[in-house]
Structures are given as C-alpha cells and as structure tokens.
Amino acid sequence: MNQGQLATSLKRWGVRVTPQRLAIAEVVINADDHPSVQQIHERVSDQFPYITLATVYATLSVLGKQGLIQELPFQKQSRYEANLTPHANLVCVSCGTVTDTEIGEDLITTLRREVSVKAEFDIASQRVDFYGWCPTCPVGTYQDGSR
Amino acid sequence: MNQGQLATSLKRWGVRVTPQRLAIAEVVINADDHPSVQQIHERVSDQFPYITLATVYATLSVLGKQGLIQELPFQKQSRYEANLTPHANLVCVSCGTVTDTEIGEDLITTLRREVSVKAEFDIASQRVDFYGWCPTCPVGTYQDGSR
DNA sequence: TTTACTGCAAAGGGTTTGCATGAGG
DNA sequence: CCTCATGCAAACCCTTTGCAGTAAA
Lengths: 147, 147
Fold this sequence. Notes:
homodimer, Arc Repressor Mutant, subunit A, alpha+beta, Dna Ligase, domain 1
C-alpha cells in the first residue's frame, strides 16, 4: 500500500489526512520488525523532529480502528504490524525479535474458517504467536539473562 | 492438577511452597475466564485478606517460569490461563470475554510442528487468538461503545 | 538457622488525557 | 470558517522494586 491508497482509505472514513499520519503509516507498513511505539517515533522523527509520542499513539489508534494495522500487546510494550493476512509470528524469547513466517498460512486460514463456523464466532482478526528460540540463539536462554 | 501435584512441581525447581502460592495457582487453574491480576487478587483475598498485588504478581511470575501457567498480554492488562495445550482463544471485542475453544486443536498442533521444522524455530509455547464477536454480542460493536 | 517469601510503600514506565495552537477540508 | 489534529505537559494505572519482618525447609 502506497500513500495514495492510504489517503483514500483514510478519507473514506472521514479521517483527516495529515503528513504525520502518512509518515507513521508508511513506517509501520514498510517495517518488517514489528516496531514498538518508541521505534516508530524515532523513525518518524527523521521527517518530523517535533512530533511527540502522543501523536504517534493517537495515529496508531486511528490506523488500528481503520483496520490498516494491528497492535500486538506484549508484556513490556505493544508492537505494531501491517501484515493482516493470516500468518504466524515467531517471537524469540532470547533476542526479542519478532518475525513473520509464511509457513502454515493455509493452515491458519483453514483454522480461522473452522473456528468461525463451528464456534459461531464472527472473526475480525487473529493473532498467532510462537514463542521460542530462533536459529541463532542458544536454546534455554532468555532476554533477561535467566535460564 | 491438584495442590499435591502443584507442590511437587514447585519443589522440583527448588521453589518454596507457600499457602498463598497454592491458593493463587488453584485460582488460575480452576478459572475458565482468563482472569486478570486484579481478579485473581480478589478471588484469593477470600482466603488471604491481607495478600497484596505484589505477591500475586510475584507468584504469577514464578508459576509462569515453571511453565505452569501462561500470561496473555492485552492492551489494558494481562490475563492468565493454565491451559497450555495448543488451542485457540476466542476474544470478544464487544463484551471482553475470553474463552478457550477445542475447535481446531489438531490443526494448531500440526501448525506448530510444521513451523518448528521448516523455520528451524525451537518452540516453547504458543498463543492463538481470534478477535471478533461472540454469539450473544451485536456484530460491529466494541467494548468502549464505539462502532 | 538459613534463605526465600510476604506485605507494605514507593517508584517506574508505557499509555492516555486535557488543552491551546495550528492545519485540513 | 469550522472542525479536528498536533504538540506539550500532566495524569493514569499496571507493574516492578526495595525493604523489614516472617515463614518454609
């Protein structure tokens, strides 16, 4: 999604299009590391040195309600992603990275449909996380140094 | 799991077994509503009127590290559950309830194995959430009253 | 007896809110 | 022009930390 499509999507909901919002949305859409609010704020600060965290929070809330991005609450803070298609997140409990994987996307889509039908649950979105150790981290270690 | 098994599990890790810990663990294990820390504190307060939130937090942290319970961070606060088998949580964005479903458990188990092998990711646990509207809530409504 | 847990109080920090100014439509 | 977004500051509240007394082993 580019800024043109983005602006159209925002206008459709009667939401005001501002340069800050476009920049924040672009940062999240182009990010592949599930950035935190702090990280998003840092990256947007290149273009808008005086932008505040409050503005970033407000914009992320708007984008979330538009269904353009998804908030992923973690224990310490939330992270954000723009990949709304059914997929799994790989969360390394050692180095803290969060990466998307395409593996099993069809299974998740099937799962979603099955749950929707059998549980009579009207699904708007989903979150699939796997917590463990990525290939480069020693199994059994944790981000806080414990084991 | 009863308190005897629980005590054994705690002792195995050199963790001290106290009445408060047993009570907190029992509350989480017997709960089917994914209670918050506040709710767990309230329920344990019946037995221990002077117990504090700090103790509840500390105990939940211990139980989590033992792999007896799982913390589920949400936007407002965390909830806890003792069902660690692969399953999906149904999160109603209207009434706020979180319920486990057995539907698709085999799919999730298959998914986990596939991701583990193909992504070379050593998985310790997982979280599968579906966000939407339960059968008794009007589709399109939200907990904060917006739509 | 030793070590770790509990209860209490205070601090920490991510997130939200209130308000005056400024920009979008 | 009118409404809403931004920037700034303060408040909010969940969660963590420090410490003295106490209970587990």
